[in-house]
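May I ask you for just one protein sequence along with its backbone structure tokens in two labelled lines?

_____
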Amino acid sequence: MNELSHEAPHRMEPGEGGSISSLYVSRMKIVSFGSFSNRVIGPFTPHLNVVHGKNEAGKTTLNAFFGGVLFGWEDARGARNTYKPSNAERAGSIFFADEETDEEIELVRVKNAEGLQGPEYLLDDIDKETFQTMFALTSDELRSLRNTTDVTAKLLTAGSGTGASPAQALGEIQRRIAEYTSRASGIDHSITQLSAELDDLRAKIARAGDESERFKHQDKEFHELAPQREALIASLQKLNAEIEALSAGKASLEKLDEELAHSLDKRKELLEEERELVADHRRHEQAIDPGLTSIAPAEEHSLRDRIDMLSEERSKCQHSVDLAKENYTDSKSNYEALLEAPDLQELENRARRQRHVQIALSVALPVLFVIAGVPVFMHGREITSLSFTALGIILVVFALFLAGAALVMLFRPSKTEEALTQRKQDAQWIMLQDKKKLETCEEGLAAQMIQTTTFLERSGLGAAQGSLRRARSLLDEARDARAASGLFVQKQQALVAQLSSIEDRLADIQSQKGSLYRRLGLAVDTPLSDIATLIEQKSHQRSGLIETSENVNRRYGELKQELAHAKHLRNFDALKLEYQQVNTQLAESEQDLARLLLAKHMLESAITAWESKSQPEVYRQASRLLSMMTAGAWVQVRMSEEGKLQVIDRVKTVREPIHLSLGTCQQLYLSLRIALLMTAENVGRAIPIMADDILVNFDEERRRGAVGALKELSARRQVILFTCHEEIVRLMQDADSQLNLVEL
């Protein structure tokens, strides 16, 4: 917030520097208002601005100050807060800057009696009610749209290009109609007063005597013109009604023809879509085995259970084969390793060497003792020595004993050799047993696979070729085929329902066209060009009636002048003339009233036509903005035939605002206000939108959508949003990096 500036801004006059549409509020200077004193709020930029402050920081006060400067301070009524300081007058100003030249102008207000000081042309295109309803937004204001019809008419017709909008002209006509029917004595053209005056003049003429015949002919002609004028007006009204009915009927027929063509195209598209759907379904059926599609869900469930059991059995058989193969491989490896083990061969070689040593010793020792004993025995015999002879005999006997022992040891098997042989035999036996078990397991696995293949073929799954995984895939395909068949039936039923609806709509369109032709008094299927020609003919006829009416009115005025001249001749004639004048004035008043009523009808028709052109754009914009705010939950805003506001969600559910939640209702009326403000760009061109915490009842997602809508509005109008929530400030900054933030 800036400090109070002491520099006087440049005062820009109308037409100086740019246009009203290029002006925007640059700052507010509060001399004294509520709790504020000598404060400057701003600066503001031409587009999106956020004023952030805590509770009781003065956001609502600033809103009230802005409206008070433009349209006057609030009068003290009851307990309403008028923000009047206890010791000072309310006073302040608003500065408007030109976006093109950066020059400033100032609107100042001190006392209401002194009025607004400054270029008041800034408020020429807006009034207080429109400002409070459309430009000063609060969360409470977003629950409704006050004076909807009046505000909409003012906004939609503000850009009509006339000096005043049709809605303002209609208000003026209604005021003048009220004058013609008023009983107030100060209104000289009041029909009630003129009728009373005529009654008084009749009494005076009756008392004055015989009526003068001097101007009978003129008077007779004068009075004869009145019914002729009325007949002309009635004829004009009838022609206007016929032209209006024909124009409306022609527009309705054009719309029905467009809808008829669209419905026929839609029917053709649906029929083509149905043909493609049937063709796709047939191709899909041809690609799937018919036997699979006939499998029922219960049968499929049973088959899957059986396949799971077979899969489990195959897994067990395969596991047994793998285990037997592993055992056979291990036993075979052990046997081959035993045959080729270095330690075993070394033991065999050592045993063989020991055997050879035993054989050598068993041969050598006996031979040695025999060789030693025989010579000793022979020498003892020679010398006849008993001791030598006995010694020789002992050596020979000992040699024989050793030879016998050697023979026993030679033929006795070796324990080492026996142990080695036993180990080989055991390893070989284990290997042979594992081999037999492997062969048995492989035979079981082959039998199980044959059993599986036989079962699958009997169950219609022969295409799986014994593969349980392929069988499951085939069952999945069968299930998908059944699902696709069900989906096909659903789609076909939906298409049949749409086609039936299209056929009903086509019949309804033909019925409506027939009713329109009968109501217009035309033959059925009369070309639109013939209707346009008939409208043109009646328009020419109306032009001739208007010309005749002008001639009659001109003659009527001439007679009126002649009768007015008779007033100066004598008193009786003056009374008659006065009577005629009053009567003429009464007739003129009645004619003027008829013209006003006709003008009212035509203006109302013009406003209706204007709204029929502008309102669709308003509701289209409102529908788009509401869809943006509600993330597509509510997609359309419209006015019912009874004139009630309605909203439609994405599934075509129609609701009135009273049936919506508080947040959704506020989003609806916010979208309507933004759409009106975007459509009626010539209303309040220099006035910003003042929004006071209007997003507090929105959830995060819808708040983001509302921020997007405000940003879109800020591209066309200046927007100043007041809030005390920091998360809203962050959300606005994320949405618009150029956002102008003012801290209170």
Observations:
- Residues 191-274+506-602 form one domain.
- The longest helix spans residues 216-287.
